[in-house]
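Hey, weird one. I pasted the CRISPR-associated endoribonuclease sequence into the form twice and got a warning about non-standard characters only the second time. First submission, copied straight from the form history:
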Amino acid sequence: MRIEINLSAETPLILPKSHNHLLQGFIYSLLDPLLRKRLHKEGYPYEKRRFKLFTFSRLLGKVKMFKEYFQFNPPLKLIISSPKDEILQSLAEGLLKSPEVILSKNTVYIDSINVAARSSFNHKVTIKMLSPITIRSTLYGADGSKKSYYYSPFEKEFCRLIKENLRKKYKIVFNKNLGHDFEFSIKPQKVPPSCEKIIIYKGTVIKAWMGIYEIKGNPEVIALSYDTGLGAKNSQGFGCWEKL
């Protein structure tokens, strides 16, 4: 399920080029304090990993790019998606209590909140990324040093790792095992070089991709990816998509 937040402001919003952490902080600030603390510290566990189980879009609207910052011209829209009703309910309540909020140094107004029902999907769906998709592996050097390798949509491991990521999310959300041979694939359809994005998140360099893709598989798994986001780092603003 997802909510759509429509925003306005008296002046254009000025945000740094890498502002995922600011949008994430804005979302966390709207949550009930107890849920915010639990989500931030514990999340939803899978073995040694902890998932936050929400994703969000880029800030959608008219934007101008300058050397050091983006200028967003209202009206604007932010989409937040999660399979956990407690997260979206808490966000909606927080928004209703806060018709005027601060995003970085910008004052913004909540014009409206739309709650979308859970979508149904067929076996094959063409999608457009609303925030870039990322997936990585940790590589180890001969000296024991670690390095993150981010896969492009044109590499075989891209699909395999996204599928494995979905398997873990499925176990958390439904408390059922999919196994490793369930049907799922993702293929780039329109992903030119300009879709590659380099994002700095709290000092960490992340490589991610926008674009249009075709996904195939179990409709329940596709619906899960719609709610949780595709790939990794969803709660940092990666992997949100819409159906074309």
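That's the output from the first submission. The warning seems to come from a hidden character in my clipboard, not from the data itself. The mean pLDDT is 95.
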